[in-house]
Protein: Beta-lactamase
Organism: Stenotrophomonas capsici
Amino acid sequence: MQAISLFSGNRCFSCFVFSIALLATGCTGSPVPTRDLGADIDEVAATLIEQPLLHSTSIGVVYRGEAFIRHRGDMETGKPGPPTDATLYEIGSLSKTLTGTLMANAVLERRLDLDDDVRRYLQGDYPNLQYHGEPIRIRHLLSHTSGLPNMLPERANTVLADFTDQRTPRELNAIYAGYGKAEFFRDLHAVEIRQAPGKDYAYSSTGTELAAHILETVYKRDYESLLRGFVQESAAMTGLRIRPNEEEAARLAVGYHSDNPVPTTPMPLLPWGASGNVKATVPGMVEYLRFQLAGGPVVTESHRALVEFDPEFSIGYFWNIVSGDRLKGVYYAHHGGVPRSQCYIYILPKYDLGIFAITNQSGDQTAHAMEAAIDTLVKRVAAREATGQGASR
């Protein structure tokens, strides 16, 4: 089962996320704390890139107010050159949590309501965006319960069914060449909703793109400028881009798809880019971790469960909310994946801990290895807490 969250049709943000068996794979490590948390992070990063096909990794951590960034490995095979703080990474579906944050802000500003029919924000008639009279509402977009397809156009879902096929990036590029907002709305007219919205989880990047359109409508600004303005003002997060300029594109991380030894192309641009086209540096993501850990009204709202699927798994404003984990406590997480990178974000209030980890390789075992590394790091922090050690560098 693939764990590429931009494309996943499965209930959980990763098919491995609840498995304690992850600790047996890759970065197992010792639970005995070290004097230096930075050294622990460095060790976890070094062990992670020993996994097959992984070239490099960057990890950003905020622990009880202290920030740590580590880069390991070489971006390109046979070419010395590790990632740096200036490297611009494709963060894939972590982009959705940013969309959720903007939505939470819009709700608090009373610009929209979670129970609004999405058709209120669309031009033209969309009689198809309902099921037996029950419309798709904004809360359904945020919780992946709208019944909308994963991707539009729907033929992209066929290509992504075999994500690791080396032809996949090329075929995605062909599908999205010239595919903009007009084409999205054309295809949205043809969608068939086969179940009552709000009941069943069905991962949908289409829903996130539609959420971005709604935000543009209520704020009367294009999505990228709205996003960049909010995160810079509220989270001190700079350098975030959806459409990088020439200088920024030169800093975009090289990446590898599956077992292809040749670097692949970036994720093609989606109509709004809200579901998987955000690019950010690791220092920028560290500021996002700080923002999430600080709480505040917008973060608190975005972490509020909109639907509970079982006692251990809920969805907030695109955030996966996991409970019942004795080690981590209740935490908020998301996976991001595009054809040449995969990443994770974890917000763990139990330890006042935030983790962002990314690699420049994307295959069917990448998420598994990264989760093992993160679990090891959380175990190190838990051991540190148990012995009363601080967050020394």
